[in-house]
Design goal:
- The complex is a heterodimer of chains A (347) and B (818).
- Chain A is built from eleven helices and nine strands.
- A seven-stranded mixed beta sheet of chain A has the order 1-4-5-9-8-7-6, sandwiched between helices. In chain A, strands 2-3 form a two-stranded antiparallel ribbon.
- Chain A is rod-shaped and about 125 Å long.
- In chain B, strand 19 and strand 20 form a beta hairpin.
- The termini of chain B are far apart.
- Chain B is of the alpha+beta class and 818 residues long.
- In chain B, helix 7 runs antiparallel to helix 8, helix 10 crosses helix 12 and helix 13 packs antiparallel against helix 15.
- Classes of the chains: A alpha+beta (347), B alpha+beta (818).
Chain lengths: 347, 818
């Protein structure tokens, strides 16, 4: 207790004693209730020890009051700090406790993402990028010359039956393949050329489970001096191994007016491992892409010396790959833009 | 093209299995899409052993047997064959089998004895006429083995995908030739019992000739490069022998009668369509001394009832075969019903022609009819084949139906075209194929497919004369392909060789699209890839030959498509729609081609986020979300130039115009969907990313190299040093009178606050009770900072007063006091 008329020394000793005791009691309060009791004992505004200390200031000689006042303030600050600290510590302990149900769901956002066909295109582009290919684009509305003439299609020939065309005018059409981009690129840029041309192409095919009047295609073209069929085979085999995982490939003779020699590439059927099943019609192979050495007539259409330069090209359908990859029974799923479908597959 | 494995083997010196032929043809010539075992109907039949045999108690010719079919139990089977013997193997049809004649085998009692299946004779299996007894199998296989696995039974059909450049493969001869080229087999035409039948050699004329009772006349030589005919008199039309029926059925063709079957046989054997007309039906009523057969264009108004019984209107663009009066066949497509060979026919005229491919194509299209014959003529039938085919078909008809050639056959032909030899440089082969092959090896490969190939110039080149049936071999590179495929694509190495980097930079649009996909995906939008076809109307580009009238136009905007897609989602009760698309749009152009651009479009409607227990009723997408999405696409697509949204008049739901570098390129809008009442409001954004030129890069045969494209604008933000002094913030709650908008107030605040203003945030908007009608209470938070020292209270107070007085004097905006 503080004497009735304390000296400065007595006052200061008492203040530091209250401070030490107060900090000790406040800091060890076991729970909120104990802390409140300690607070009332030291900081209470009716009978708290700090209040007594404050009242004691008035009994001091005036010349001692400044130093005593400073000591009082210090004690008050420290006790309040000890109270806050303990309060925060108890709150931390209680909130980390078992009453938070961690199995509750997170606050999720809507899932967005790219269309499966875009994902397939991106993956193809990614693999060819490593081999020095860049992306070229062209219009979907094309002239007959870029779509057929420049690509060595004979006029009025059954080869045209494979490209049932949607026409927009006398000689204007919706491109039936991405190959016009080959010609546009060859006219615009001098070799060496290594490009990929992804895009939408059109055929006069009504929608059914496996056909659509508009679908994605991706084209590749490499033109330079000394490019050969070996480059074609090696690059596409490398691609197939990267894209489909280690797998066997085979090349079959084919025909496209704009390549010579022409070849189609198959990869081993992944469902049956090459033994033959209904998905591969018993052949053990899945057709993946068409390819070939660029026909000299195509290079000549673009004013490029076909004696000096050779090249190879390929084209493939990402939608077919997406259908296999996601096991889709109907190609229309890729067009319907059904949010429920896209939420499953978009990334 | 359907090919029979047995038939192909009759051309070859060694027999090849169906699988072997499939793999060889696919690897070197054309893809075999399917291999069909034609006797798949025998799949249930198994090989079974008769273990016990004894007489039937109630019959003098039936036997009672116990049969082991590999199931572990013996079956009681009653058998009527005299040759059944215990210990031997026979084909056995278990109960449930449907026999080739349609009979279903069931468990039944035969004169009191149970029979569980049937031991089969060759005839019962459709394997011949033998019916003296059941088919004894001298095989070392276990009972239960499927019959088809135990012995080679029946033919197989190869379905070959013959591509348009190889009409020579549309025959067994053509396919067998390819096989022989790869295997080294010798190739011979099979014996079909025509030895001893002599058909005189045809006589050649240019335009007309008498074939014995009929004058052939080729009115226009552009219609057919060759037209041959032979008259056979005294035939007897009847059924074909089994071997011929089998051959035709193996390729999917039905037997009609011996004459028609002979023509079909030659079509599939040699690839030459031929047609037999009943001479008796050719028009007699003519002023000319003899009946004529004319190859000519159809006349306006003519009609013909074709073999399929359909009356067809003919047009001048079609080629017909006519007698003196009327058309009797659509040339190269189908014969007429009236002159069809029937059981009563005795004299026939057989046509063997080479009709013009393009003309046949037009004729076939106009007739709306495709046949085995038109399919071949369209692709080109070798004119040099005609004499061989005429001899073959006439001999076969005579050997099957009797009769004799009435006169020397007629051959209307200008003669074989001169074929220029091609030069194939050994070095060019190496350049294109990437492997070195000696000239002699190249020549050998080419000779295999009928080329005449001579090595010249000490191995530097091969001089090649392509056979008449290979009109696709036109250039040096065509020969390089022959070499590659005959050598075998699979034998080429797959070694990656060094390459030079290309000169083409990524299309800028590709990078823009990629960034947009990232940004919109992160914002929770899903990418759609629908078709650009719309119902359309005025101002839309029309497809001349649309698939459907309700999708006959091309869209002008991506939103037109996405609106329909959003409605489709609503139709199955999905109200939370967030879709975007990057795609081409079209508008009518000055010339033939439309103007094309690539746009990004997006639609949002419904909940802004999924439901969470802290937020059971998520807010719905509103105009402010749409405005942010508009800003997002504008900023993402055009990072290097100024991109901003300007308020629009709200006509047609347009809320903001998107202004890129001063030009309007898009909009943010409220969408008016055909939506059910429960649907939330929908908002859309559309922005033109780039024009997509479809004009010529350079004239045909030329290039535009060296034209330097405009450099891509690029903007990199400059670093500003991070602040080291403290900031002060204060709020201003302002009353905006009618006609004053937020942007006006912000402009005034910025100007008055000066460069100490670091940040200005609008954080509250209130209208209603407590605020004067028409007025809006808007609150901003201002953050002020001096770059070098702490701002004094007096300075801040000074700026605050300055801002308030500017607002008061310029906009009559006061501070809100209540």
């Amino acid at each position: 207790m503080l004497p009735e008329n304390p000296t400065l020394d007595q006052y200061l000793a008492h203040a530091s004693e209250v401070e030490a005791r107060g900090i000790a009691e406040l800091s060890i309060a076991a729970d909120a209730e104990a802390l409140e009791e300690a607070r009332i004992r030291f900081l209470g505004d009716k009978r708290g020890e700090l209040l007594a200390l404050q009242k004691g200031l008035g009994a001091l000689p005036p010349e001692s009051r400044r130093d005593a006042g400073r000591a009082f303030n210090e004690t008050k600050t420290k006790l309040n700090a000890a109270l806050d600290e303990r309060r925060a510590a108890l709150a931390r302990a209680s909130s980390a406790g078992p009453e938070l149900d961690l199995t509750l769901p997170s606050r999720a956002r809507w899932r967005g993402g790219r269309h499966p066909v875009t994902l397939v295109i991106d993956e193809i582009v990614g693999i060819f990028r490593e081999l020095g290919f860049t992306v070229a684009l062209g219009p979907e509305s094309e002239s007959e010359w870029y779509n057929f003439g420049a690509l060595n299609f004979p006029a009025d020939h059954p080869a045209m039956d494979l490209h049932d065309t949607l026409y927009l005018g006398e000689s204007a059409l919706l491109r039936t393949h991405t190959s016009p981009v080959q010609v546009r690129t060859l006219q615009r840029y001098a070799p060496p050329i290594r490009i990929l041309a992804p895009g939408t192409v059109f055929r006069r095919d009504p929608f059914d489970a496996s056909h659509a009047p508009a679908f994605a295609q991706i084209e590749g073209l490499a033109v330079d001096e000394g490019i050969s069929f070996v480059d074609l085979k090696a690059t596409l085999t490398h691609f197939a191994q990267r894209f489909f995982g280690a797998t066997r490939t085979r090349f079959r003779p084919s025909y496209f007016p704009f390549t010579e020699p022409s070849a189609e590439m198959d990869v081993e059927c992944r469902l049956c491992g090459g033994k033959g099943c209904s998905a591969c019609k018993g052949t053990g192979w899945m057709e993946i892409l068409g390819s070939g050495m660029v026909h000299p007539a195509v290079l000549e259409s673009a004013g490029i010396d076909s004696e000096r330069y050779t090249g190879w090209a390929f084209g493939m359908g990402p939608a077919r790959i997406a259908m296999q990859r996601y096991d889709l029974p109907d190609i229309r799923l890729l067009y319907d833009s059904d949010v429920r479908f896209l939420e499953q597959v978009a990334e | 093209m359907n090919a029979s494995v047995e038939w192909l083997n009759t051309f070859l010196s060694a027999a090849h299995s169906a699988v072997e032929l499939r793999d060889l043809i696919t690897a070197h010539t054309a893809t075999v899409d399917e291999l069909i075992a034609l006797r798949a109907d025998l799949a249930p039949i198994v090989v079974a052993r008769v273990v016990e045999e004894g007489p039937h108690p109630d019959s003098d010719h039936l036997h009672v047997t116990r049969v082991d079919m590999g199931t572990g139990e013996l079956l009681d089977v009653v058998c009527g064959a005299p040759n059944v013997e215990a210990g031997k193997l026979y084909p056995f049809a278990p109960t449930g089998t449907v026999m080739p004649n349609g009979l279903k085998i069931e468990k039944r009692k035969i004169r009191g004895q149970t029979s569980n299946g049937m031991l089969c004779s060759a005839r019962e299996l459709g394997l011949g006429q033998e019916h003296d007894g059941i088919m004894e199998l001298d095989l070392a296989v276990a009972p239960g083995t499927p019959f088809l696995d135990a012995i080679a039974v029946g033919d197989s059909r190869l379905v070959i995908d013959v591509l348009p450049n190889r009409p020579d493969l549309l025959s067994h001869l053509g396919v067998a030739r390819e096989v022989a080229a790869v295997t080294g087999d010798t190739l011979t035409l099979p014996d079909i019992g025509t030895n001893g039948v002599v058909v005189p050699e045809a006589k050649r004329f240019r335009r007309a000739g008498n074939a014995g009772g009929v004058v052939l006349h080729l009115e226009d030589a552009t219609l057919a490069s060759r037209y041959m005919g032979v008259v056979i008199r005294g035939i007897q039309v009847g059924p074909s022998p089994q071997w011929l029926v089998d051959r035709l059925s193996a390729v999917g063709s039905r037997s009609i009668n011996n004459v028609v079957d002979a023509t079909n046989y030659v079509l599939h054997e040699l690839g030459q369509p031929t047609h037999a007309f009943d001479m008796g039906k050719l028009d007699l009523d003519t002023k000319l001394p003899q009946k004529t057969v004319v190859v000519r264009s159809a006349k306006e108004g003519e009609t013909l009832v074709t073999l399929d019984g359909v009356t067809r209107k003919l047009e001048p663009a079609m080629t017909v075969i006519a007698d003196s009066v009327k058309p009797i066949a659509i040339a190269g497509v189908m014969g007429g019903q009236e002159t069809e060979v029937t059981d009563s026919t005795t004299d026939i005229f057989v046509e063997v022609a080479s009709f013009d491919p393009a003309r046949t194509r037009r004729t076939r299209r106009l007739a709306g009819l495709s046949t085995d014959a038109s399919y071949r003529f369209e692709r080109g039938v070798d004119p040099a084949l005609a004499p061989r085919a005429l001899e073959r078909v006439a001999a076969l008809i005579i050997s099957l139906a009797g009769g004799e050639v009435a006169a020397v056959p007629v051959d209307l032909y200008a003669g074989d075209p001169l074929r220029e030899p091609l030069v194939l440089r050994t070095a060019r082969v190496a350049r294109v194929l990437g492997i070195e092959l000696p000239a002699e090896r190249i020549a050998e490969l080419l000779r295999g497919v009928g080329c005449q190939a001579d090595v010249e110039d000490r191995g530097a080149m091969v001089r090649v004369l392509a056979p008449s049936w290979r009109r696709d071999l036109e250039r040096e590179v065509d020969l390089a392909e022959e070499v590659a495929r005959l050598y075998g694509y699979d034998r080429f190495p797959s070694e990656l060789r060094p390459y030079r980097p290309g000169t083409v930079k990524d299309a800028p649009l590709w990078g823009v699209a990629d960034r947009l996909r990232d940004a919109l995906g992160a914002a929770g939008l899903l990418e759609a890839r629908p078709t650009p076809f719309v119902a359309g109307a005025e101002g839309h580009v029309r497809v001349l030959n649309p698939l459907a009238d309700n999708e006959a136009y091309l869209r002008r905007t991506v939103l037109e498509t996405l609106e329909r897609r959003a409605e489709a989602n609503l139709a199955h009760m999905e109200g939370n729609v967030r879709l975007y698309e990057i795609g081409s749009v079209f508008s009518p152009g000055e010339h033939d081609l439309p103007d094309e651009s690539v746009n990004v479009g997006l639609v949002v409607m419904g909940d802004r986020s999924p439901v969470h227990f802290t937020n059971p009723r998520p807010a719905q997408y509103d105009a402010w979300d749409a405005k942010w999405l508009g800003e997002l696409v504008a900023r993402t697509a055009f990072p290097a130039v100024e991109a901003k949204l300007e308020p629009a008049g709200q006509a047609d739901g347009v809320l903001w115009h998107i202004i890129i570098d001063g030009a309007e390129r898009g909009s943010v809008r409220r969408l008016d969907l055909d939506a059910p009442v429960w649907a939330a409001p929908a908002f859309g954004v559309e922005l033109v990313l780039a024009l997509m030129s479809n004009s010529d890069v350079a004239p045909a045969g030329e290039h535009a190299h060296g034209a330097t494209p405009a450099p891509e604008p690029r903007r990199t933000p400059r670093y500003r040093s991070l602040p080291t002094t403290p900031a002060s913030t204060f709020d201003l709650a302002l009353l905006l009178p009618p006609g004053v908008n937020a942007a006006d107030a912000e402009r005034v605040i910025r100007a008055a606050a000066g460069d100490l203003l670091e940040r200005l945030e609008l954080f509250d908007l209130y209208e209603g009770e407590g605020v004067e009608s028409g007025h809006r209470s808007v609150a901003w938070r201002l953050t002020m900072r001096h770059p070098e020292r702490t701002l004094r209270d007096k300075e801040i107070e000074g700026r605050r007063a300055k801002v308030l007085s500017a607002l008061q004097s310029q906009l009559n905006v006061r501070q809100r006091t209540t």
